[in-house]
Amino acid sequence: MEFVIKKADLVRELQTVTGVVEKRATVPILANLLLEAHGSSLQVGASDLEVTIRGKAVANVLADGSVTLPAGKLHEIARSLPDADVKFKLGERDQVHIRCERTNYRISSQPRDDFPSFPEVDPAKGTQLPGRDLHDMIERIAFAITTDDPRYALQGALLLLHAGTVTLVATDTHRLAYISRKFPAVQGPKAELRVIVPRKALAQVLKMTADLEPDEMISVGRSDNHLFFAVREHRLTTTVLEGTFPRYENVMPVSCGTSLNVTTTALLAAVKRVSLLGNDQFGRAVQLKLGPGKLELQSKTEMGEAQETLEVEYGGEEMTIGFNARYLLDFLGVVGTPEVRLEFDPQREGETPDVRTNPGDKPGQFRPAEDGTDYRYVVMPMHL
Fold this sequence. Notes:
By secondary structure, the protein is of the alpha+beta class. Helix content is 16%, strand content 43%. It has 6 helices and 25 strands. The strands form 4 sheets. It has an 8-stranded antiparallel sheet with strand order 6-2-3-4-17-16-15-10. It has an 8-stranded antiparallel sheet with strand order 14-11-12-13-25-24-23-18.
C-alpha cells in the first residue's frame, strides 16, 4: 500500500471518523482506523461494533492496499504535520512510513483481516432529507438524552418518519425535548420509520452534517437491524436500540394556564449569572418568580444569594417555580430564536384543571416564541 494525500484532506477525514472510536476499547483492533487505498481515493473507517462510519477522500494511490493504524495517534500526528502532501507507505514487518516534507514517522500497524466488517447499505433505498434541517433538529434535542440511565431505550432519541413529517424525541425522565417538522418530500413506504437512535450515532450525524449547504440532501434508512445515514461520501450505520420508548405524548401538555415571552439572550445571561452560587453536585437551582410586569430569577445556597429581575409583558397572578439551571441553559443555548415562550400550569389530554394544585408543582414547558418548527421542551420543577 502506498498513497499521497493532502494534509488538510487527511485531517478533515480523521476528524469526522475518530469520534466512533472508543477511548478505552476492550478489543484492541477497535482502537484503530481502517485505511483502504484504491483507485484514486482513500477510504477511512472506524467501528465500535455498534456504530460504524466510512468516509472517502481524494488521494494519489501508487499501490492499492489496506492497513489499520491507532486512531488517536494518527489523528494527533496528522494535525501536527506541515500544510503539505503526506505520503503513506506500508513497509516490512507491518510498519507504515509516514512522510511530510522533512518530517518522518514509522508506526506499527495491524492487518485488515482483524478489523470488523462494515454493514452494506444502499443509500438509494433510504429517505432523502435536507441535511442542515436534520442537523438543527438533532441539535435541539440531543442534550436531553440520558447519560446515566441503564435503560437502553433512553440512551438514544426516538426518530419518527411518517406522512411527510420528521420527529425527534429525547428524554432523561426529568425533562423531555420534542421537535417535529413537515417535509413534503418525505413520502412513500420507505419513509415510514420508527427507531431509537443511540446518542453516539446522533453525535456523529451532527458532525457529518455541520458544513452542509442548505439545499444538500442526505439519505436515512433502515437495513435489517441497522439504521444508516449517508452524507456526501460518508456512510454511518448504527445498531437500532431495543426496548420501548416512553409514551412522550402523555407528558406534553395540550394547553397551559400561564404563558409569557422573554428575550432569549436576556434570559440566558440572567440564568447564567444567578446560578453561579449553585452547587454543581446537586444541580444549580434557579427560582423563577412571576409578577405583574416582571420575571425575577433567584438562587439561594449556603454560600449566599443571587437575584436578577427582567421586565416582561405579564399581567397574571404571582407564581413561583424552580428549575435546574443547567436544564434551562441547555435549551436556551440551542433554541435559536430571538424570543422564547415560557408556559406554566400545564393541562394534559383528558385532564381537568384543579384549582387546588400549585402551578409551581407542575412541569414547565418552553418553546420558541415564533418558529415554523413544532419544538417543545418540558421540564420537571425543583422543589426549593
